[in-house]
Design goal:
533 residues; alpha/beta; FAD/NAD(P)-binding domain; Flavocytochrome C3, Chain A, domain 1; 2 domains; 14 helices
């Protein structure tokens, strides 16, 4: 039987409540009604878990040109230089705005910002709040949003799909011109009903997809929902082969997901990577040693583990000032202490874990996707800033810059957009509740195992083909289940992760070179690549 779907209308619709979604919402709220949707608690996002900080040029000896150069070098020849220049030159203004909104970045006794240095950066330029910068930014922005009467936040609302002409009976494919986004179908987790939200403009700010892998630093909500929805709607998605594995997540065999991140700033303070035999090894891979770009460090650790047969390497901070360790990394220190590790006295066991997707929904310099009236910002987007590898702490910067620019564009356009009034209700006739949840949980485990085994830090043509063959079987099983089952968050997240895995594999198969985060044993570094390893 057809479900009676509640229909809601708004000017601006925001999907996701991290730094990108909140910044955008605050900026467009003066121009109309804003509805923000988040599938969990309103403060649960990838932003919340960002430890290190946000990169920006604040004062000399740093300069925009230095930050631009670092970003381009890290991106291994695939950055869009015009985008890099735009984001970096707008960095100072955007972080000052975050501070004005209440973010309490750490300062030195003289009142200047206490800037940190991370891998790939030539200068100290990372603004931070201890070792939980994202948590502090999220707190400040949420306070602002809650006090704005034009912003309504709906938590525990799971977006199932964006609405386009397809839902009006029009055939839509990748070559269809003028595909438009009219809003979304969303599962209200409090009522169990699918509702329809129609909007003049929609911002996709759904974060990353780390949970397509077994080990990830991402929270469990990071299932690639926004990217998968846009892909299914025939929007343009690109560069999904470039998956950044953070080199140093805490190795703890008894831990649950997500993997606990040991911030790059620990190495910025002087922490050194060592094998389990106690030998420092990064100098043989890169002249920057333990502070080389993340793709190089992650591959180096992966190589050492496979060569030596060890399950982790060590991060050594024992030569650092204990007071400085506790001052800069109280959260990390406490976490390590809770499992019997004193950072000032003991080596920390670390392994790489899936951390960040450099590709995503293709957008222009104003955050506009290939689907009309649909914007994207933050990790779910592909702007051209990161290229083949993201420079540490450029992600929060990218999110806030693109949220700002998307808000400017959407605010100008809103007066010329009308809400489509002919959208059908969600139709789940002929479906029933799943009899066995194990069908979903088992397929999820298989997807994560396939991606981790065959599409991880080091790849090959054979591994990719095997991954695609295995994933196709799971895809067919899950689509059949989706067609005959009432939607649930678990089913939809699995569907999205299968889509994400497929896009990553297909993107990796198309790239006939090793470049940045995509490293294949079958191909040498491509022309223009700066990587030898």
């Amino acid at each position: 039987m057809k479900t009676e779907s509640k229909q809601i209308q708004t000017d601006f619709l925001v999907i996701g409540s991290g730094i990108a979604g909140l910044t955008y919402a605050l900026k467009v709220a003066d121009h109309g009604k804003v509805i923000m949707l988040t599938k969990d608690n309103e403060d649960e996002s990838n932003t919340k878990y960002a430890q290190g900080g946000i990169a920006a040029v604040i004062h000399e000896p740093d300069s925009y040109e230095k930050h631009i150069k670092d970003t381009l070098e890290c991106g291994d020849g695939l950055c869009d230089e015009a985008v890099v220049r735009m984001v970096i030159t707008e960095s100072t203004e955007r972080v000052i705005e975050l501070a004005e909104w209440g973010t309490k970045f750490d300062k030195m006794p003289d009142g200047e910002y206490d800037l940190a240095k991370e891998g790939g950066h030539s200068e100290k330029r990372i603004l931070h709040y201890k070792d939980k910068t994202g948590f502090e930014i999220e707190r400040a922005l949420l306070e602002q949003a809650r006090s704005n009467s034009n912003i309504i936040i709906h938590d525990h609302f799971f977006v199932v799909d964006i609405i386009t002409q397809h839902h009006l009976g029009v055939e839509v494919n990748k070559n269809t011109p003028d595909v438009k986004c009219f809003g979304v179908y969303v599962l209200n987790l409090k009522t169990g009903k699918v509702e329809t939200i129609l909007a003049k403009t929609t911002l996709m700010a759904t974060g990353g997809a780390g949970n397509v892998y077994e080990n990830t630093t991402n929270p469990v909500i990071a299932t690639g929902d926004g990217i998968a929805m846009v892909y299914r709607a025939k929007g343009r998605v690109e560069n999904m082969e470039f998956i950044q594995f953070h080199p140093t997540s805490l190795y703890n065999a008894a831990a649950k997901r997500p993997s606990f991140l040991i911030s790059e700033a620990v190495r910025g303070l002087g922490g050194l990577l060592r094998t389990k035999n106690g030998k420092e090894f990064m100098q043989k891979y890169d002249k920057q040693g333990s502070l080389a770009p993340r793709d190089i460090v992650a591959r180096a650790i992966d190589n050492e583990l496979k060569t030596l047969g060890h399950e982790h390497v060590w991060l050594d901070c024992t030569h650092l000032d204990p007071d400085e360790i506790v001052k800069h990394f109280p959260n990390i220190y406490a976490k390590c202490k809770s499992i019997g590790i004193d950072m000032a006295k003991d080596f920390i066991p670390v392994v790489p874990a899936a951390h960040y997707i450099c590709g995503g929904i293709k957008v222009d310099m104003w955050g506009r996707s290939s689907i009309e009236n649909l914007y994207a910002a933050g990790e779910c987007s592909s702007t051209g800033l990161h290229g083949a590898n993201r420079l540490a702490s450029n992600s929060l910067l990218e999110a806030v810059v693109y949220a700002h620019r998307a808000a400017l564009d959407a605010s100008k356009a809103i007066g010329n957009i009308s809400i489509e009034g002919n959208i059908p209700d969600w139709n789940d006739s002929g479906t029933s509740y799943p009899e066995e949840m194990v069908l979903i949980t088992q397929n999820l485990r298989e997807v994560q195992q396939i991606m981790s085994s065959y599409v991880g830090i080091v790849r090959s043509d054979l591994r990719l083909k095997r991954a695609l063959d295995r994933l196709n079987i799971i895809y067919q099983e899950n689509e059949d289940l989706y067609d005959r089952t009432t939607v649930s968050p678990q089913l939809c997240e699995l569907r999205n992760l299968i889509n994400i895995g497929y896009i990553i594999i297909r993107s990796a198969m198309k790239r006939k070179e090793s470049r940045g985060l995509h490293y294949s044993v079958d191909y040498k570094p491509g022309e223009g690549s700066s990587r030898k390893f």
